[in-house]
Amino acid sequence: MLSLLQQNKLEAAAQLVQAHPLPLSQARVLLAQGETSAALAVLERLRQQMEAKGWQDERLKVMALQAVALYSIGEKDQAVHVLGEALLLAEPGGFIRMFVDEGEPMRLLILDFRLWIEKQAREGHKSIEYVDKLLAAFTPIVPMPQSAVSNHKSTMVEPLSQRELEILRLIAKGLSNREISRRLFLA
Fold first, then answer.
1. What is the rounded distance in angstroms from the CA atom of residue 142 to the CA atom of residue 140?
2. Which one, out of 8, 9, 96, 164, has a CA that is 20 to 30 A from the CA of 128?
């Protein structure tokens, strides 16, 4: 569904939401249609449901989308507040992809959040490193052809080990730190 919206196939996404009424997808379509108030109403009900059930991962997805929706209608302070709450939930799990998937509006909101932290003279703020990691994740990775990688003579003082290369491949696939450590059996 998200990929349909990213491809600007709004009509197909709207049809999919009608066939499979999933609230988060419904809110995404409403936002794409410019019906932000309706989307925020859906998201608020969904957030309350997720909080009542104790489903933190789902609540986090809702909060990220809520923050983007609020930001899109100029409610910058409220958007930064909701994003701050979401980041507090997300940081221990190392969640990155769910923020990056929201695209440029989320990147701009995270930048504003970072500026807010600096303005509050909170440079020692616990989340600053996590925020910087999120912002770095928005930088597009341009893949090199395999032939260029294998034929390229490393200019590094100490080339990366096979294990380090394996970790980089998993990072490039968008896996979180927790997922990578599970795959590689790291402590």
1. 6
2. 164
